[in-house]
Amino acid sequence: MKLNKNDKTRLHNKNLLYGFSFLGIVVILYLVLSFFNPEKIYRSLNAGLDIIIQILPILVIVIFMMGFANYFLKPKTVSKYLGGKSGLKGWFLAISMGILSHGPIYAWYPLLKDLRDHGMRTGLIAVFLYNRAIKIPLLPVMIFYFGIGFVLIVSVYMIIASLIEGKIIELAEHRFGEQRQKDV
Asked: How many structural domains comprise the chain?
């Protein structure tokens, strides 16, 4: 079901209201709790600041990539490489990009949503997310502790499992979409 411009604006405003309400509640809770245990509040705020400092570089990269994607990638291009008719090329690209991606996973969600809005298949998003578990910088450490045979088997298993998971998600999405159309 497509939303018209007024519905999208209303939904955006509603989401914005919920976001600010949540922020307000958290700020009030912090203020109230600071009277009871200011040391824990200080440590909590410091921990939050440390997390922000850690994710800031990857967040900047993802925002840059989103801008790049919006400027250069047209829906036709995304469809060609990651859309319904992308074939093996799309699966390979999703696996590769998942393995090569770094940083916290939640920093990638906006970019993936943007790509999905431009035509990326849901199954390829699942494959990308699944293959993020294979971290190239950590492979030598894993080999040191578990051996190269184990690392190869686990990595190949994860890639195969990601493909199966992606296909299952696409089948479920297809069936759910058919059922939804029958209900309407």
From this structure: 1
In a domain, 4, yes or no: no
Over the range 16-54, which residues count as b (16 or more CB within 10 Å of their CB) and which as e?
A: eeeeeeeeeeeeeeeeeeeeeeeeebeeeeeeeeeeeee
Range of the domain at 171: 39-179
pLDDT by residue (tens digit) across 91-117?
A: 998 999 899 887 778 778 888 888 888
Has residue 11 been placed in a domain? no
Cα torsion at 144, 145, 146, 148 (round to 10°)?
-10
Instruction: Give φ, ψ of 132 to 5 degrees.
Output: -65, -15
How far apart CA 27 and CA 75 sit, in angstroms, is 40
User: Is there a domain that residue 162 lies in?
Assistant: yes
Which pTM value belongs to this model? 0.62
Task: Give the separation between CA 112 and CA 106, rounded to whole angstroms.
Answer: 10
Instruction: Report how far Cα 11 is from the mean position of its chain's Cα atoms.
Output: 21
